[in-house]
Amino acid sequence: MTDESTQFIQWFRSASPYIRVHRGRTFVIQFDDDAVASDGFNDLVHDLALLSSLGIRLVLVYSTRHSIEARLEDRHIKSLYHHGMRITGADAMDYVKDAAGKLRIEIEARLSMGLGNTPMSNADVRVTSGNFIAARPLGIIDGIDYQFTGAVRSIDTDSIRSKLDAREIVLIPPLGYSVTGETFNLSANAVAAKLAVALQADKLIYLMESGCLKDKAGAVIPQMTQPEAEALLHGIAGEEGVTRYYLRHALDACAGGVGRVHLLDRKIEGAILQELFTRDGVGNLISSTAYDLIRPATVADIAGILDLIAPLEKQGVLVARSREKLELEIDHFTVMLRDGVIIGCAALYPFPAEAAAELACLAVHPDYHNHGRGEELFRELEAGAGKQGLKHIFVLTTHAEHWFREQGFQESTVDALPVERKQLYNYQRNSKVLMKTLT
C-alpha cells in the first residue's frame, strides 16, 4: 500500500462521522475566476470531486469578474461600476460571454480529471451545465442604467435536482437568460445565494479571495448566529467592500431558509475539507439555527453514538453496548450535536415505582472536555426526570465520581438502588453508587 493510500485511509476514517452526516445533502459552492487561474485550482477540483464521490450533491457557481476586466483592459474599455455592481454595456457583453464560456470549459476539463492517484481513482465524476437561470434586467438605479447587468428572475430547480439525483455536479455560470433570448451578466455571489434558497440547500459555501472575517484581535471568527452577523455587517465601514458583499448575500441566504453559510479563505489548502470534516473548521460559519443542539436520539444516531462511546468502552470507562442493544434502548438516549455531528450523549432509564432514574452512558467527545458540554447534557436529562415526576437520579461510575459530586450527587449504596437495578449490579466492576435528590 502506498503512503498516499495510507494517508487517505487514515483521513477517511477520521472523517467518517462527518461523511455520514453530509452524504446526500446539497451544497452550493461559489468561487472566483482567480481561483481557476491559481496554482491551487487542481487541488480545489480534487477536493470537489472527492465530495461528489462521497455522495454530496454539488452545485458550483463561478464568477467572471476578473476575467472580464482583463479582456476589457486589453481592449482599452473602461470597467464601470455603481454600488459595487458592474454596468454591462453592449460592447462589454461579448467579453462577458467569452469569459464565462472559456471558464466553463476549463472547469469542466479539470473536473474530468477525477480522483487520480487516490484509492478512489475509479470514481465517476460527471459535470453538467445549462440554462437553469432566468434573468431580468437590473434596470435603472439612482439614475444609472445597468443595461445588460441583470438579476435572477427564477431558477429551474426541478431540472437541477434531476441532475443532482443522477449524481452529476451542476456547474452554473453567472449568466441568465430572458424569454426574449437576451443574455444578462449576473453577480455570482447573488446567484449562489439565490440557488441555495431555491434548492433549500443544506449549506452555502463562499470561497473568498479576501480571506475570512476576523475579530479585533485578528483571529478568525469561527461561528456567528444570524443576528450576530447582521450586527457585524452594520459595523463594517463602507458600502462596497468585498467583505460586506459576501456577508450581505450570506445573510440573504440565511433569511431564505439556508441553515448554514460558510465563508472560507480559498487560499487555505483543503479549506473545504477542513471546514466540513473537522469539528470546528477553519472559516466563518453563519447559522440561522442553533449550531449546538440537544435532542432525543433516533435510530439514525446509532452509528454516531457508537463512534463516541467505543473508545470509552475499550478503556473500561463505560459498559460495552452492542448495536442491537443500543437500538432497543435508543428511546432512552439524548444526543448533543454540533453542526449535525454527535459530540455528546447520555441515557436516562426511569424506574417509576421507586420514582427514580439511572443516568448512564454520559460521554462527551475529548475535543469538548472542559467546555461545560457534560453539564449541559446532565441538566437536560435532570430536567426531563423532573418533568416525569421522578425524585431521585442515581449513577454507577468507576471513573467520574468527582465530576458527579460536583453536580450534586452524594455517595450511596447498592442496597439503595431500585430492586430491578440492584439485581443487575456487577460486583466485578465494583462501581460507585451515587445519588442525587431532585428539587
Which keywords apply here?
439 residues, alpha/beta, Carbamate kinase, Aminopeptidase, 2 domains, 8-stranded mixed β-sheet, 7-stranded mixed β-sheet
Give an overview of the whole structure.
The chain is of the alpha/beta class. It has helices spanning 3-22, 33-37, 41-53, 65-74, 90-111, 157-165, 188-199, 226-235, 242-255, 271-277, 302-314, 323-328, 373-387, 401-406, 419-423, and strands spanning 26-31, 57-62, 81-82, 85-86, 126-128, 133-137, 140-141, 144-145, 150-155, 168-172, 175-177, 183-185, 203-208, 223-225, 260-265, 284-287, 292-296, 333-338, 341-351, 356-364, 392-397, 410-411, 432-437. It has an 8-stranded mixed β-sheet with strand order 5-10-2-1-13-15-16-14, sandwiched between helices. The protein has a 7-stranded mixed β-sheet with strand order 17-18-19-20-21-23-22, sandwiched between helices. Helix 4 (65-74) packs across helix 5 (90-111), helix 7 packs parallel to helix 9 and helix 8 runs antiparallel to helix 9.
- Counting structural domains, the number is 2
Largest beta sheet: what is the strand line-up? Answer: 5-10-2-1-13-15-16-14
CATH level 3 topology of the largest domain:
Carbamate kinase
Unreliable runs: none
Rg from Cα = 27 Å
